Task: structure prediction
Amino acid sequence: MESLAGDRDRFLSFLREWASRSWRWAREERYRLVFRVQAAALRAAREYLDSHGFTEVLAPIVGPVTDPGIRGAKQATIDFYGYEYKVMSSAILYKQYMAASLGRMYFLSPNIRLEPLDSAFTGRHLAEFYQLDLEIYGASYEDAMRVAEELLYHIVKSVRDELGGELERILGRSLEPVRPPYKRLSYPEAVKLARELGCRQPMGAEIRWECEKVLSAHIGEPFFITEYPRGARGFYDREDPERPGVLLDFDLIYPEGFGEAASGAEREYEPARVVARMRESGEDPAKYRWYLEMLRELYPLKTAGFGIGVERLTRYLCGLRGVWEARPYPKIPGIAPTP
Ligand code: AMP
Ligand code: MG
Result:
């Protein structure tokens, strides 16, 4: 027990030093390549989206509300001329009307989530990260899944074509682009498989990170988990009107144990249902006045989309230990940097 606690403390002080003194490692050959891979991945993503009818939009950084569905993380706030504003945990709520305006849109923007200290150990959580967040007007969650798999394929292929040799030589990473369509597991199928693989996973709850990792290590290529149960996700993932309790949503999962790449869904757009879902998830509808007004004025605002984390993508492309290797001056959950 003591040695486990010792390991934990040692790892945390390593992370604190890593995060506070990133100029010491950022010039190493290995990290120079990581940052070039990240830039190549973003270039490939923009190339794919721009040539498929998407328009890049500048995202808000702060606003009266932000994404509440952030699984145990806390939102950061700022004093905005006497009002409490939120720093975007994701700009999800601001995508829908821009999708109605432009048809297909995306943001590439930073997010702040004050994640709990324990998530410093997952290799997948930062307190500040970038997200590529897109939304399509009139689309179903299946349409969004097809964009997600094509986008990931295009990114992996472009990075491999451009930097595959250096990835092998410097990082020992061989990247194999897997052609879509990717396998689709429904939520109950994923729970069943996780249990068969020896992971304790309650039915009806969000898939635990450990179980997602086990599934991700078991299935040899990227795959989707679809149709999470209501209660596992934010109020904005649409509930299937034909199957109460089932959400029209998905996660895209990387192989090799890297876990979640992206989360997406069709959006709940009936104002009364949105209010009911807000209440059910402990949100006060009064705080979302502008959002509900928008849903009423633009009714029926049918959209679907997803968000993919940039540091997790980089981690997967480079085969890194943690997302903290994919940012200069990374913000580690629960750890203030040494001044
Ligand atoms: P979510 O809406 O919570 O599923 O977030 C969308 C995507 O952003 C996820 O699929 C991840 O790729 C990424 N992401 C979410 N939270 C974090 C975090 N704390 N650190 C790094 N990436 C994250
Ligand atoms: Mg998610």
About this structure: The chain has a mean pLDDT of 96. The pocket of adenosine monophosphate (ligand 1) is lined by residues 70, 90, 113, 115, 125-126, 129, 131, 260-263, 307-309, 311-312, 323 (CB under 6 Å). The chain has one domain: 19-325.
